[in-house]
Specification:
The protein is an all-alpha fold and about 450 residues long. Helices cover about 60% and strands about 0% of the residues. The chain has 2 domains: about 250 residues, Orthogonal Bundle (Hypothetical protein af1432), CATH 1.10.3210; about 180 residues, Hypothetical protein af1432, CATH 1.10.3210. The N terminus is likely disordered.
Length: about 450
Amino acid sequence: MSPLDMQPATEVEELSLSSIIGSLSYALDLTEGLPAGHSLRCCWVGMHVGQQMGMDSEALSHLYYTLLLKDAGCSSNAARLFELYGTDDREVKRDFKLVDTDSLVRLSRFVLSHTGVGKSLHERVNRILNLVQNGEQFATELISTRCERGAHISIQLGFDEEVAAGIRCLDEHWNGKGKPARLRGDVIPLGSRIALLAQVVEVFHSAEGKEQVVEEIRKRSDSWFDPAVVEAFLETQRQPGFWEGLSDSDLQQRIEQIEPASKVVRIDEQRLDTIAEAFAQVVDAKSHYTYGHSARVATYTEAIATTLGLPKQRVRWLRRGALLHDIGKLGVSNAVLDKPGKLDESEWEQVKAHAAYSEQILSRLNIFSELAFVAAAHHERLDGKGYPHGLTAERIPRETRIITVADIFDAITAERPYRGPIPVPEAIAMMEKERGAAIDGACLDALKQALPALGF
């Protein structure tokens, strides 16, 4: 079936919230530089621990979404992290999760090996000295930004304060040496204590195997981890199928099945809009230069589609696609996104990969199957010179062409690392030069017609 012949799914009430969040959690894994499925595997570990500890259905439900959304704020400190370390923020995030920050030796090795990679000796030394002198302040700032943003997003998604608190306190340690508030012991929400342990279990298991996991968890008991949570983990990890579950190809389905049945939330159209808006904010927080981009593209898309006479339900559906069209950018380093100069060939390939990432993430759900293609193809060109698939005009749906025009208009009129914003009349003139090549003329005309209503 051609993408042009597809119709958008409307029976969203049959979907559970867990299936949506579980699928979109792959985008959060990209931002953290971790293997796909990290959040799901953390949920598998943490829910087993919670059940072992005898948590009731309501507490387990809060834990469930704390685990899936623990990285919801991860993009908000990426630009700052790149600014401090001067290297790929995803690699810094990934490798830092393996460091026991209570060990000065391990922490020092990490800073020396991850700061200013590929830079001049002078720049590396200056960056290292800055981190040594102000490291504690910077770490608190980065973690606070991340955790507060993640907590805010969970509230926006409609979750209880228990979930927000679980995310906010993720990096607090049992011994009071965590961040950002240096909470100690039972003051730390149980969901946070379990989520932190689950995260360490998953990253060590992915990097080094289960034997190293058990050793590391034992070593950090009573420092990073609540000894009771450690004991529950050590007991549950002996259960048949526990470790095998982490590599199960059907893990997402299994995760959906272990959500407490009495707490399953069904999705309606409004909730789906809210989810798209929240994840668009996650995307736009990745870089100062993308802040607000997805929301603006969604606004322009809605205006163009309405002007062209698309049915209201189709416009609403397409707006979600516009909100999520750049979700794959979470897998692109800020070293590339925030680079002020011209990108080299390798960097340009990284940028181009974001469209394929968007398609892969969105296509994980049947309800987004058409939207995945339509939204991720926004860099395709009518002349076949676009990416990621090099599609020609007859294979590019009208809905994609609408998002493309909206995306190009915002890219030109917004500030970029290498230039300031370009005035609207000049932007339209630039777009006219691409009419029939990169840009659909009817969509461009609709944008021009909608400009007064958009405030231009």
